Amino acid sequence: MFNIAKQSIEWGGRTLTLETGKVARQADGAVMATYGETVVLCAVTAAKSVKEGQDFFPLTVHYQEKFSAAGRIPGGFFKRERGATEHETLTSRLIDRPVRPLFPEGFYNEVNVIAQVLSYDGENEADIVAMIAASAALTLSGVPFMGPIGGARVGFKDGEYQLNPSKEQLKEGRLDLVVAGTHDAVMMVESEAQELSEDEMLGAVMFAHKSIQPVIKAIIGLAEKAAKEPWELKLADDSEMLATIRKAVGKDITAAYKLTKKSERQQALADAKAKAKPLYADADSATQQKAGKLFKKLEGEIVRGAILKDGSRIDGRDTKTIRPIVSEVGFLPRTHGSALFTRGETQAIVSTTLGTADSEQMIDGLDGLKYERFMLHYNFPPYSVGEVGRFGAPGRREVGHGKLAWRAIHPMLPSKEEFPYTIRLLSDITESNGSSSMATVCGGSLALMDAGVPLKRPVAGIAMGLILEGKDFAVLSDILGDEDHLGDMDFKVAGTSEGITSLQMDIKIAGITEEIMKVALAQAKDGRAHILGEMAKAITETRTEMSAHAPRIETMSVPKDKIRDIIGTGGKVIREIVATTGAKVDIEDDGTVKIASSDLDKIEAARQWIIGIIAEPEIGKIYTGKVVGMPEFGAFVNFLGAKDGLVHISEIKNERVQKVSDVLTEGQQVKVKVIGVDDRGKVKLSMRLVDQETGEELADTRPPREPREGGERSDRGPRRDGDRGPRRDRDRGPRNGERRERSEPEGDGSLPAFLTGNDD
242, 446, 510, 752: which could join 339 in a potential S-S bond, CB 3.0 to 4.6 Å? Predict the structure, then answer.
């Protein structure tokens, strides 16, 4: 029934198995990839014809994580997988970016790639397995895919590169790098790093490229067993049409690209396009669409030729010069921190918002529920490029650009112990002409410093471009939007003065070499240093004072056995603290208490309340308390958080007090001194030894008690004449014809010590 084909290799200390022919047999290509106990099914389908009028390649990649893969039930009301999470969106992009350039130009059939995580072992990341499964499924499908590709994750610790490290190894190391590539070249790079040098980063990329070669061979081996017949692809020869358009408007396009201002250049190009339109005005719609694409191709030829010939760029710069930079901090009055970063015609307004632990982002994924304290959100409204377009929820591009900036800044943030705030960066792109994600990195770093977030070092980012024709190439620093669209590479490098914190590379050709990457990294290092210098003109160090509108957080530690007392039954006590003081209070399982408010007095009130709950009364220390009960023998005073003590009637004043209510009222504030704690923890207090006005301790002027004969003492002074002696055990008379023994209580018949305040 099944025609199963398998290919297995030992890779990174585990077995990687690729299988086809058993599951999803109606797809054009389907592969079940297993690594450890992580299993991903990827299915590829392709339309057999092109939709009328379509002039682009509609490739869609969907990555989905099934909660059942980790033995979990989704949270929320519906209890099923919902829309794509941020992680799923980023992984979809991770697969899309290296495979898209490997389809031939002019192939416009719709292709659908769906990768689903069916089993997850918590150790082997599913994104790399999904990338390999997608590459294998495309290779088997017969569509014109110039692969296969392989993918790998690389860590770096103690000078050694690690292939597909565990999550624990990634936390302990300095690098989280994902690389995809073909047999000959690198196609895609995505990373977060702890200030690696250019040589260390390049070494990691090349280590990954070497490590994926066995995977590529395994996919080819599987294809030899089970691949479908390749599609016959017929691409029209458009050279004659391109020559006609070049003759008609080639000079106009060349002149347009000598205009350095984006708006003027766009208008000149629009005029040239309008001039070329009559050439095919009477042709069918397909021919007119083809003419439009060839016009764009001609733009690329002109721009690329000028750069390779004499290094002449669109805006007149050479290949290494950075556009003018203007940085400003404190741009917005009510935010906790803000910056306006402008580089040429690219501009970002970035704001920092600080919050408490309850503002952390809750993420429900295959690894369970976790909380993220640093968020970075990137917005790209259509007005930033002078266009009318969709405005609303973020798309895949915005999610991806935001995560790139997040990875660049994240390694330089202080730890939660050093800075116990939740941090949100919001980047709104107000102008865009190349590398708005790197403007977000620069503006984000400035906004964090303006907010008082103690970054280890400022972070800057730069986008590098590439023009490659045969063996000739030019690497461009700080690329414009047009250089990105018409070039071959978008190579983004972010980092500090000490090293790289993030590297991302996307290309439009069939890969780049180690030599090109080495040149790009060296050139990016110089550009990054220049940008950091320009940023320093706005702010050089993190502000020592936070905004008056930002919450203050004070951290204290309490014994674990006191956590229950602070929370109270059903949270009663902590709710009362928050409601009364107005401060937010968060308690962690290790006894760490965080108190937050923009008002320092509220923080101090909550702190003192908590201290009162956890503190033990000190004998001889004076406290301020409140009368909460008045029995006949004294007054109960609440003096230390929830703790009460007894002021015996004899300790209220030095003179005799007939009734407690003659001196005190319930709710009255009094000052008391701790004079004892009995073996049951009952606290004995005195008012007479404290000046009730000033709170100063008073000398004990009461005459000392005189001892009785035989060394006995009485709490009530010497015995009066006629007082009876102590009762002795004696036999009582018969009861019901029997005699019984009765034990008399010890002592002299006076009040118990806990009622008199006497601790003798």
Answer: 446
